[in-house]
Specification:
The complex is a heterodimer of chains A (236) and B (201).
Chain A (H helix, E strand, L loop, with lengths): L1 H20 L5 H10 L4 H19 L2 H7 L4 H45 L3 H5 L3 H17 L5 H4 L12 H22 L7 H11 L1 H9 L2 H12 L6
Helix pairs in contact in A: 1-2, 1-3, 7-9, 10-11
Chain B lengths: L1 H20 L2 H23 L2 H17 L10 H27 L21 H20 L2 H12 L4 H8 L3 H28 L1
Chain lengths: 236, 201
């Protein structure tokens, strides 16, 4: 029991020894240590050894030199944080200006270009209604007014006039007719009249009655008409 | 104890200011109060002054960015210690990979980096003596077992209480005191031995 107490005491003295050497003990522990140190001469030797070694070490201001490295740490931390914050703000703003906005502009331009330069199927068929009516009236008048308005006899006419009507009137109507036909052709965006379907559409728009008559025309006659239509001149 | 309690209250005030206003002055105070501790810890792991310096800054940036999540169930130093050691371990892992991939060869001329001492005030003999003392101390320190080395550093260099060290290292205060005694004794014995060898020449 006594031995154990002494062991505990010795152990406690050992635990207090470093703080005693470096003067970090509170008053109570310091008093305890000084009251009991004489009982442990080996600890006295330890104290002297540690003091001499660490005294040399303290002379070097070792810790001060290490701490000099951290002198400006707070300034550098604030600077780095500032840079990180502004980079994060820039990056989200940067994404908008560098990618999203140009992409939106490009898509818009592409849509406008497509809209203006490509015609879709439903446009090929339609023609302005007022043009259609005018053409119909003009052609109807030709069909109705003259006996010589005969599609079949057209083939015998080598003057490139579409209808055998009064010359002057014919010329006037033909010019107008040519213009309208050309306009209708432009609307279909075919660029030429090689397309039989386009001719059919033009005729059906101009005069629904003529469509029926077209259906009665035989193939050879229709080809002739078709060839003549090719010679339709654009009026400037 | 009262001084420690006051210091703790001040630190909590500083943290609250950082959380609520991101106040630069509060951040400065926070960093200054803990920079030595973080730097010493980083230096022990990384063994390079410049790397430890860089990592110290990164630790504080991370801590400040996440300070709202500090729950005050441990001390600030314990919290910073954990951040520092984790970042050091990551840095060492990266270094291993980089060294492996780049066939890194240590500069043959480089020796352990020593701190520049006050050169104007010291004689060449004293400078040499200090350099040798420092080298001996670092060698002795490096040979300590991990727990003893950490206990010694946290108590001797960072002046933490045994209760704070116990929170950090997860060891009882009685065990820490024993570790501290053993560490100090070993360093002292090794340095005495070196000095004895020098004197014997």
């Amino acid at each position: 029991m006594v031995m154990k107490m002494e062991d505990n005491n010795f152990k406690r003295m050992q635990e207090l020894l470093p703080d005693y050497v470096f003067d970090k003990l509170n008053s109570e522990d310091k008093q305890f240590f000084e009251d009991n140190i004489d009982a442990y001469p080996e600890l006295l030797t330890e104290i002297d050894d540690i003091k001499s070694v660490f005294a040399k070490f303290d002379k070097m201001d070792f810790l001060d030199k290490i701490d000099n490295k951290t002198r400006n740490t707070s300034v550098r931390v604030l600077e780095k944080r500032g840079k990180t914050k502004s980079y994060n703000n820039y990056s989200s703003f940067g994404f908008l200006t560098r990618f999203a906005l140009p992409m939106a502009i490009m898509i818009t331009l592409a849509l406008v270009y497509i809209n203006n330069n490509f015609v879709f199927d439903n446009k090929a068929v339609s023609i302005q209604e007022d043009v259609s009516l005018e053409i119909e009236d003009n052609v109807k008048s030709i069909f109705d007014s003259s006996d010589s308005v005969d599609i079949i006899s057209y083939s015998e006419n080598s003057d490139n006039n579409l209808f055998a009507a009064d010359d002057i009137e014919m010329e006037r109507l033909t010019n107008k007719y040519q213009t309208k036909i050309n306009e209708a052709l432009d609307i279909t965006n075919t660029g030429n009249i090689d397309q039989m379907d386009d001719v059919y559409y033009i005729y059906s728009t101009i005069n629904p009655v003529a469509v029926d008559e077209l259906d009665e025309i035989n193939e050879d006659d229709f080809k002739i008409i078709y060839e003549e239509l090719k010679n339709v001149k654009v009026q400037n | 104890m009262r001084t420690q309690a006051l210091a703790l209250n001040n630190e909590i005030d500083i943290i609250e200011k950082i959380v609520s206003k991101s106040d630069d002055r509060a951040i400065t105070l926070f960093v200054r109060a803990n920079q030595s501790f973080v730097f010493h810890t980083a230096l022990r792991y990384l063994k390079d002054y410049d790397e430890a310096d860089d990592l110290t800054q990164e630790v504080f940036i991370k801590a400040i960015d996440n300070i709202a999540g500090f729950r005050q169930d441990s001390s600030v130093k314990t919290w910073l210690y954990r951040i520092t050691t984790n970042m050091c371990k990551n840095a060492l892992r990266k270094k291993k990979v980089v060294n492996f991939l780049s066939f890194y060869k240590k500069n043959e001329n480089s020796e352990e980096e020593f701190i520049e001492l006050k050169s104007e005030e010291l004689t060449p003999h004293t400078k040499l003596e200090f350099k040798e003392t420092e080298e001996t101390f670092l060698n002795a320190y490096a040979k300590l077992p991990d727990k003893q080395r950490e206990t010694f550093a946290l108590r001797y260099f960072d002046n933490l209480t045994y209760e704070e060290i116990s929170q950090i290292l997860g060891t009882s205060t009685g065990g820490l005191k024993a570790n501290y005694f053993q560490a100090v004794k070993k360093i002292s014995d090794m340095m005495k031995q070196y000095n004895g060898d020098e004197n014997g020449r």
